[in-house]
Amino acid sequence: MAVLVTGGAGYIGSHMVLALIDAGHDEVVVIDDLSTGFDWALPPEVTLVLGDVADQDLVARTIREHQVEALAHFAARIVVPDSVADPLHYYLANTVKTRALIETAVKEGVKHVIFSSTAAVYGEPETVPVPESLVTNPINPYGRSKLMSEWMIADAAKAHGFSYVILRYFNVAGADPRGRSGQSTPNATHLIKVATQSALGQRTHLEVYGTDYPTPDGSCLRDYIQVSDLAEAHLVALNHLRGGGDSLTLNCGYGRGYSVLEVIEVVKRVSGKDFEVRLSPRRAGDPAQIIAGADRIRSELGWVPKHDDLDGIVRQALDWEDSLSKRNRR
Ligand SMILES: NC(=O)c1ccc[n+]([C@@H]2O[C@H](COP(=O)([O-])OP(=O)(O)OC[C@H]3O[C@@H](n4cnc5c(N)ncnc54)[C@H](O)[C@@H]3O)[C@@H](O)[C@H]2O)c1
Ligand SMILES: O=c1ccn([C@@H]2O[C@H](COP(=O)(O)OP(=O)(O)O[C@H]3O[C@H](CO)[C@H](O)[C@H](O)[C@H]3O)[C@@H](O)[C@H]2O)c(=O)[nH]1
């Protein structure tokens, strides 16, 4: 019985594929349109079906051919400010296409669904950390596009009898400790990516978007979770569902926040490189602070993170960026 990973050629999806392979799952199928992913991010034993998650014939054929039992749905558009600039594109890519995919999964009898959601569903919480029980109130189209998908999945599961785990990721960072994958999107906007590229001289400078937030140093606070720890959370979620466990919605974070300025300091210290930092106005759609209430995933799934260390995460990101620039020069 296979696991179908949508968006498996992307940053987080490729780490999920590696985690599945490392755990001995021999049937892993990826559907990816390679819009932001890379076929080389996949190990050779994994089948890549090139296409769109909303192509219902293609997805149905893939599910049947590989006897797919579980779906891990990563494929999406992910950049918060882009979602503010082009909301209809985000609702199509993240909500409408998820509807089509879930409809196909239901028709084809897929038993379990794991969905990549986001801390952005909480919006601008008044206090942190945020427990899963907090009322959701997304402040940008990206968060809304994901929250609608959460609701669809929960409603469809109730009506059609599949089980699900919705994982609300906080800020994902770092790379595979064995150097097999990492964040590879050339113009990625994520803070740790931009900072490591600046440290390696691949960018001229880094802009800090906002230093007038109501936080200790005025810059935004985020909870950075290492990408292989996050992939491991998906594996324990899959085992939970396969063992007959109930459907769950869980935060994925460490429960600790770092400010943008603190992250920059860590990148400078770990890399041993200084780079220009410009203090700029706020970026559209950014909440001041978002930190996970991180207990439920531990108690429900027994998830134990192994890489809860910002220095280590930054070191992995630097090593990955370095290997990526060598790959691109070849
Ligand atoms: N990166 C983060 O910090 C973060 C935080 C919270 C949630 N998430 C969620 O995690 C998931 C993965 O994010 P990522 O950082 O790996 O992004 P990514 O852009 O690296 O990966 C997305 C993958 O999906 C593929 N894809 C996109 N649309 C597709 C479509 N219609 N059909 C087929 N393939 C398609 C892309 O080619 C890419 O390989 C997303 O759902 C995102 O919303 C990410
Ligand atoms: O060059 C940069 C890049 C980012 N930032 C700041 O750093 C913080 C983190 O920004 P990222 O772009 O790294 O991440 P986001 O918090 O915007 O969003 C990420 O985490 C969210 C969940 O918290 C979503 O799920 C989303 O997909 C994912 O990109 C923000 O305050 C942002 O303004 C900068 O100051 N300069």
Automatic annotation (TrEMBL):
Record GO terms (molecular function): UDP-glucose 4-epimerase activity
Keyword terms: Carbohydrate metabolism, Isomerase, NAD
SUPFAM superfamilies noted in UniProt: NAD(P)-binding Rossmann-fold domains
Pathway as given in its UniProt record: Carbohydrate metabolism; galactose metabolism
Gene Ontology BP terms: galactose catabolic process via UDP-galactose, Leloir pathway
InterPro entries for the chain: Epimerase_deHydtase (IPR001509), NAD(P)-bd_dom_sf (IPR036291), UDP_G4E (IPR005886)
Keyword NAD found: yes
Domain of life: Bacteria
Keyword hit for Isomerase: yes
Cofactors (names): NAD(+)
Documented EC number(s): 5.1.3.2
Homology family: Belongs to the NAD(P)-dependent epimerase/dehydratase family.
Name assigned to this protein: UDP-glucose 4-epimerase
Protein species of origin: Methylobacterium haplocladii
